[in-house]
Amino acid sequence: MSRQAPIDPEWTDYLAAVNQLANLPNLADERRRSAKADEETAIARAKGAQELALKACDDWLVYAKRTLSNAEARLVAAHILVPDASAAPTIAYDSPEPLVEGLAELDKKLATEVAGLNEARRAGRARAMERAAEAARKAALRKELLRIGGIIVLIILGALLLRVIF
């Protein structure tokens, strides 16, 4: 049997310190990850709290508007307050003829605007068709010019070739 030499306590402390130094970058990375996770959790909680606070504010705003309108309605019903004409405009005519005339006038305006819109659409379509036809004409002309140019090049090459042979 072989006997183990007694371990020096200073050597053990030295090995522990070296191991801790070796793990130091890992500890820093772990701290960063932990801090990032904590920050994300805190941000999520803060956003949730903010959304809840905004929802509560919206709820209180709706509640306040309802309360105000109910109070105004009660004051109007008790003949203490005169109703606001701009809040709910009403037309009090003795006869419906002015309303019918107004509607007929609005109908005429709408018909003229729709007719103008249809005319503008027709004109736009006509311009688009003209542009497309012009583009087709230009493309055909370009193609024809390329064909003629190719023929001229072939004639020139043929003439050069004939001079070289003879």
Description of the structure:
The protein has helices spanning 9-77, 97-165. With 166 residues, the protein is mainly α. It is built from 2 helices and no strands. It has a domain at 8-85.
Topology, pairings included?
Blueprint lengths: L8 H69 L19 H69 L1
Radius of gyration: 45 Å
Q: Between the first and last Cα atoms, what is the distance in angstroms?
A: 111 Å
Shape: flat
> How many beta-strand runs?
0
Please tally the helical runs, counting DSSP H or I stretches of 4 or more residues: 2
Helix fraction, binned, reads: over 70%
Rounded mean pLDDT score: 85
Helix-strand string? HH
| Major pleated sheet | none
Strand content: under 5%
The computed structural class is mainly alpha
Low-confidence stretches: none
Transmembrane segments: 145-165
Keywords: Membrane, Transmembrane, Transmembrane helix
Question: What's a quick, concise take on this entry?
Answer:
Helix content is 83%, strand content 0%. With 166 residues, it is mostly helical.
Features:
transmembrane, 0% strand, 166 residues, mainly alpha, 2 helices, transmembrane helix, membrane
